[in-house]
Amino acid sequence: MTQAGTTGPDDLALAAEFETPERAAWQELVAGVLRKSGRLPEDFDGAPERLLATTTYDGIEIQPLYTAEDGAPPAGFPGLAPFVRGGKPEGTGWDVRVLHENADNQAILADLENGANSVWLRVGTPSSLAEALDGVYLDLAPVVLEAGEEYEAAASALLELLAQKNVPDSEVTGNLGADPVTLRARTGAAHDLAPAVELAARLAAKHPKLRTIVVNGLPYHEAGGSDAQELGAAIAAGVAYLRALTAAGLSVDEAAAQLEFRFAATADQFLTIAKLRAARRLWSRVTEVSGGVPRGMKQHAVTSTAMFTQRDPWVNMLRTTVACFAAGVGGADAVTVLPFDSALGRPDAFARRVARNTQSILLEESHLSGVIDPAGGSWYVENLTDALAHAAWREFAELERAGGIEAALDSGFLPGKLAETWENRSRRLATREDPITGVSEFPQLAEKPVVRPPSPSVLDNGLPRHRYAEQFERLRDRSDAYLAEHGERPKIFLAALGPLASHTARAMFASNLFQAGGVEPVNPGAVDDAVAAFRASGATVACLCGSDRSYAEQASTVVAGLREAGAKAVLLAGKPDESYGELAGFVHRGCDALAVLAGTLDTLGVK
What we know:
2 domains; single chain; 20 helices; Rossmann fold; globular; alpha/beta
């Protein structure tokens, strides 16, 4: 350590005793691994890491390695345009916002007394507000409303309640939740922006800290859309509100101050971080070209309902923890962690406690807010942010060319684009390229289903609401119905061929795959007579598991024996090869698991 007034070394080079790694050396190591795994073709003459690159639903190619050579545009500074690095110049954490879908006053108070900062309240009837918020210190705990078509009445009820509690108009915070664009997206019916705009214009001067309008990206995410599509639609909706508000007499800056944006946070932490950073950059540009002061956006991140599962819902706790982490690192102003049992119905007190404490641990124990923009400077994150911003701007421009967000919804242009992305996503889910832990991967057939009371009904006549696990869970529902009727699950016999070492990996793979559809694998291991073992198992469908060599030597004979023994269908764990005999299908990495499972259930007579 150098003392004041003394001269230190001219250059402190950390790790200078090690040789500087060369990219070519790393590439050779990559090529060696790919060569051993059989993934490097003999005639491949490109960079080997290209074989490890992945592509997002927006066509953004993700490389396995990023270095200083992968330049990205300057991200600026926190609190300054273009606000990529955050909307504030200091790290103050985020608003822990809890969602309540009914007027459960005790549950609301429990959340606020144990770490929550604000309440996002889905209002059944405006008259229930007073009861729901009884005992809530509204000068300390902001309320964000979601009242659907009743947003004007709900806003009036909340403002009246604030006046009764003597909260000064100038100190009222929160959001009144007016959002006719989302109503149009959710219901498929036209909803005029005028009442929401009139409400905002009337209250803007009297309640300077209160926001009136929510710009909601969730409907586009839940319809299966990509990150850029969610961003593009949200920016287009924001622009629609900006135009309407300025036409009503507000300045661009006053109009922008009325808006709060809501986005989905997923378990893909880097895409979530990049999405929130890119969103601020996009909105800064919109406000700048609209003639206002470039400004960041008020962001509310919500853990994605699309990624939630009903089967093995405990894994949802891991998904929401990663999503919350990403939202915090990405700079969200408010975060809602949905309880892990939300996809099953009305969450219980334990699930709400876990959701609330997830945020408390990240904030108070992990000190996640102690660093401003911790992802800043990452070559990967900066490149991903830039690429996503450009992709989202293209989506936004397409919507503008289609006449704006409302016209794009009404014409079917935007629903069509979202449906196309969902179709692509469905293919990757079906092939387990996008695996779902506890559902399409590592399912637990013996798990006891978690049951919850039904949630209040939601608007559902517009854009569809998807969950990534829904198609696999329908197969599990069929299996459960079969179990209730027959006292056992549908079964498949795994016929092991060859020595233990040659069939174990494929047997484990097949066992995992079939359980994803609720089919119980009967796996006796290595046996002298697979056909006799099949007869004794009571199964009516079989799957061969072995090495390519054992298949070449035995498959056709064993398949014929199994068919003669009464097998309705025989499958094989491995790549398709017609020389193996009369097979109903093949199970292998990259196969259409949903199609294989549905076909197997059909063969087994599962309704």
